[in-house]
Amino acid sequence: MKNNKLRLAILAIAIVLMAASSGSAQILPKVTLGFDQAKTPQDAAVTLEILFLITILTLAPSILIMMTSFTRIVIVLSFLRKALGTTTEPPNQVIVGLSLFLTLFIMMPVLTQINDKALQPYLAEQIDYKVALKEAMSPLRLFMLKQVEEKDIALFVRISKMEIPRTVDDLPNTVIIPAFIISELKKAFIIGFLLYIPFLVIDMVVASLLMSMGMMMLPPILISLPFKLILFVLVDGWHLIVQQVVTSFA
Questions:
Q1: Range of the domain at 129
Q2: Beta carbons of 241 and 196 less than 8 angstroms apart
Q3: Is-contact 249 147, C-beta < 8 A?
Q4: Residue 120 is assigned to a structural domain of this protein
Q5: Is 85 a domain residue?
Q6: What is the pLDDT of residues 164-217, one digit of tens each?
Q7: Nearest-angstrom CA–CA distance, 26 and 98
Q8: Distance, CA of 20 to chain centre
Q9: Which of 196, 160, 197, 200 is nearest to 177 (CA)?
Q10: Angle, helices 173-212/220-234, rounded to nearest 10 degrees
Q11: Which of 17, 41, 85, 248 has a Cα-to-Cα distance from 1 of 20 to 30 A?
């Protein structure tokens, strides 16, 4: 038996050495990045386009969070976790991941319009980056205007001391985006408040029962947590929460 184990160990070491030796013989590609003087206006334009794309990639997380449905979804799910009383379950990675996929699901029509009207024509060199940016912002503006409240837009119009716009098209993005953000925060907090009510009732009932039984030293959260989990599972809570959050953007 010992001889067989020794032979297997020697064979495994030999296989690892052969793989390492064969891997060292492979030719890997070399990536270089160089700078040279722009000799034509086209070269300068390409350089500016690259810098513009790098800037967009840098701001992509902020755009994803602030100009889509991500803000409302992640705040609602965070309120749900606190209402249940589970401090780390589900973990942050799960909440953020679910929020991202729900955001992708909700924003799919907008992303499709951006791809058809801005990205594909730009890649086909039918429009320049300025027109592509304008065409990409148009579906996002329409989405945000459907969700924003009029008083929030009026607030930023009044603060900026700009002329009262005659139409929606006259509203600048610097007014629509912050108005959309505070509208999303307000709606998320309202949904979070409604989520707290049934779980708060359970906590109050459990705390009253413990006090009546003279068990004041026992934390009510230890007793109420299983009942809240059972209630959440019996009513199919995840299904209801996701359904209400998604339909709230209709």
A1: 61-193+237-248
A2: no
A3: yes
A4: yes
A5: yes
A6: 778 777 788 888 888 888 998 998 898 888 888 888 888 777 777 777 777 667
A7: 40
A8: 41
A9: 160
A10: 120
A11: 17
- Nearest-angstrom CA–CA distance, 238 and 151: 32
Nearest alpha carbon to residue 110 among 135, 84, 73: 135
Question: Quick check: 153 and 175 in contact, CB under 8 A?
Answer: yes
Query: How far apart (Å, rounded) are the C-alpha atoms in residues 86 and 91?
Result: 10
How far is residue 64's CA from residue 92's CA, in Å, rounded to a whole number?
17
Q: Are 65 and 71 spatial neighbours (Cβ–Cβ below 8 Å)?
A: yes
The 10 Å Cβ neighbour count of residue 37 is 5
What b/e string do you get for 67-79 counting C-beta neighbours within 10 Å, with b at 16 or more?
A: bbbbbbbbbbbbb
The alpha-carbon radius of gyration of the chain (Å, integer) is 28
Q: Please give the tally of structural domains in the chain.
A: 1
Note the pLDDT tens digit of each residue in 66-100: 888 888 888 888 888 888 877 777 888 888 888 88
Question: What is the four-CA torsion angle of 115, 118, 124, 128, rounded to 10 degrees?
Answer: -160
Neighbours of 238 (CB within 10 A): 14
Backbone CA torsion sign across 162, 166, 170, 171:
positive
Q: Is residue 168 part of a domain?
A: yes
**Within a domain: residue 217?**
no
For 173, the 3-state DSSP assignment is helix
